[in-house]
Amino acid sequence: MLTFETHNIEPALGELAEAACRYFHDRLIAPDRRGEVTVTIRLVSNSVSADNTQMGLQRRDMLAIKKRGKPTPPDQFDCVVQRQNDVLETMLKLAHEWIHIAQVASGRYMLLGKAPAPGKPEKFTAQWLGVKIGLIDQIPYTIRPWELEAHEWQHKLVSEFVDRFDLDEAG
Length: 171
Hints:
CATH architecture: 3-Layer(aba) Sandwich
Low-confidence stretches: none
Helix content: 25-40%
Number of domains: 1
CATH topology: Collagenase (Catalytic Domain)
Oligomer: single chain
Number of helices: 3
CATH class: Alpha Beta
Strand content: 15-25%
Number of strands: 9
Distance between the termini: 30 Å
């Protein structure tokens, strides 16, 4: 299930972003998981301070859930995306976060560990394609395989979405 919200966003951008999110959802979430996975996307104006609101998909939403002693992917995601300076950059940012949601929902990328007590540091182990690769904070952003994949695919995903409008108009 997908819930899409906007906060201080122009109506045309909100409409386009919601259509993109619905496309990304259907394109990236496996059909057999769609009924189990709940995603809330909030698109907020770029006047919202990052200090006040956590942006992107939060680590707590990526924590694997233990079922019968085995880590399984979470099924609830809450993501805040800040409007970028132009429409294309906003679409790319949404696509990037959707790729992470799909990575986690499919179990390809998970964080293992427990949520820390208030005031304590996180100590989450990143797991990619079933292999534990280390504490997430010790893996440089530029070599994290889930980030490399998201950066590679975000452009393709947005192009697919835009191309659908070209096909609709041609037919």
